[in-house]
Amino acid sequence: MVDLNADLGEIPGDLALMEVVTSANVACGGHAGDDETMRAAVTAAAAHSVALGAHPSYADRAGFGRLERGEPPEQVAREVAEQVERLAALGEVRYVKLHGALYHRANADEEMAAAILDRLPVRHVLAQEGALTRLARREGFSVTLEGFCDRGYRPDGSLVPRGEPGALLSDPDEVLAQAIRLASSFGSLCLHGDTPGALEFARRVRAGLEAAGIAVAAFS
Question: Which of 4, 42, 91, 161 has fewest C-beta within 10 Å?
């Protein structure tokens, strides 16, 4: 069994993926999202029995949260908590997945990871293995590890950085093959809602997983 998650509430039309995924990481005002888009996402998640997760980030709309800002951990942790609480005021948030540059910083920077966990109002995190997941387990959080269907991997298991050749997979067959390959190693598989063709990728991946005998269900 594996969960299928997507980063949603980021661009117009991406909530269509709610028909396919089992968990939704909803942008909550940092890199994208506002009360209207969050409310729409909460409603769609409930309508499709999709688990609701918060997707906080650096407060960086201009860079879509994908630029490292080097801000102090305490400041960032406070902003993350405020974003999660903003979404939680609209619906039950079951887990948190950081976004973009902050996702990667918290995986590598123990000081940042500790500051975020200390303020986090939800005690289940979705992430790659790293500083955040190690500290989360130590502090008694639930942890789910994720793999990426639509991102390129380096031989060491790290993601190819965005902007480099091979960072984004564009062939639906390649995306599906990677999803099936990763399903045995991770509790959740991610598709990015802002990737061109995301809805078709999601449909292909879900159908392909189920055809391979892999049940698709929310982890939380």
Answer: 161
Q: Which two tokens stand for residue 70?
A: 């080097």
Q: Find the DSSP H helices in the chain.
A: 35-47, 73-88, 100-108, 110-119, 131-138, 172-182, 198-211
Asked whether 65 and 30 are in contact (CB, 8 A), the reply is yes
Tokens of 204: 């292909």
Write out the two tokens for 139.
Answer: 């502090």
Domain definitions of the chain by residue range = 3-211
For 42-92, the pLDDT digits (tens) are 999 999 999 999 999 999 999 999 999 999 999 999 999 999 999 999 999
Determine the Cα–Cα distance for residues 202 and 190; give it in Å rounded to an integer: 9
DSSP state for residue 198 in the 8-state scheme = H
Confirm whether pTM is higher than 0.85.
yes
Bin 107: left if φ > 0, else alpha if -120 < ψ < 50, else beta. Answer: alpha
- CATH tag, 3-211: 3.20.20.370
Q: Is 45:91 a contact under the CB 8 Å cutoff? A: yes
Token readout for 32 is 């994208």
Q: Distance between CA 173 and CA 175 in Å, rounded?
A: 5
Contact 1, 212 (CB under 8 A): no
